[in-house]
Amino acid sequence: EILHPAVADNASPGLAAAGVAVLFGASYGASAMYGLVPPQAGFALMAAASVAGIALSLRYGQVVAAIGLLGAFVTPALVNTENPSIPGLYGYLLFVTAAALAVVRYTAWIWLGWATTIAGAIWVVLAILGGAGSDVWAPALFVPAAAALNLGLLPGAAFDHPIGRKLAFIPCAALGGAGLALAIDDQTAITRIAVLLLAPLLVWHASREVRL
């Protein structure tokens, strides 16, 4: 039986999204629920499934991107280790941010860029609640690094849409607000430097993109 074109068009993205979700769920079950693999391996498997979803979205569309992004940013919260690495966490988050924004570069999915940077900002706020201690430099430097990725990979096509032009400030505002909150909570030089780095970064990019 021949499927209706609309059904046929949604079949592949639906199957791809389901596949990514199954891989993520199996990885979580194998580590957190049944202890078949150590937490570090479970983290790697869940991260791989999530990043695969982000990459596959280039072929299968936005639903797969949403599942991959959700899994990627939720993964660190699902893994419990005795000695968590704060720099490793924010290094991972920066890698995921770069991967997602690289997809935005080729697709101009504005929502994906917003969701990625806002999720990163939330993790910076979580560093305040959880206490990063001497490793506070990691979430602090994540702020300007993620903002630089957002500005550097933001496609010009994103400004062709009225919403894209009016709300282009949202990602950097979210990151800047989170960084400012971190600097208020931990009043050290590194947190203040990280927030101040946003100023020349934003001015430089605005001078290159008149629509900003």
Overview of the molecule:
There is one protein chain. This protein is an all-alpha fold and 212 residues long. Helix content is 79%, strand content 0%. The protein has 10 helices and no strands. It has helices at 5-33, 39-60, 62-78, 86-107, 110-130, 137-153, 162-166, 170-185, 189-196, 198-208. Helix 5 (110-130) packs parallel to helix 8. It is flat and about 50 Å long. The mean pLDDT is 88.
Tally the beta strands.
0
- Overall pLDDT, averaged? 88
Spatial shape? flat
Strand content: under 5%
Helix-strand pattern: HHHHHHHHHH
Radius of gyration: 19 Å
Share of helical residues? over 70%
Q: DSSP helix count? A: 10
Give me the secondary-structure category. Answer: mainly alpha
- Low-confidence region ranges: none
Distance between the termini: 51 Å
Largest sheet: none
Structural topology:
Layout: H1 5-33, H2 39-60, H3 62-78, H4 86-107, H5 110-130, H6 137-153, H7 162-166, H8 170-185, H9 189-196, H10 198-208
Brief account:
Helix content is 79%, strand content 0%. The chain has helices at 5-33, 39-60, 62-78, 86-107, 110-130, 137-153, 162-166, 170-185, 189-196, 198-208.
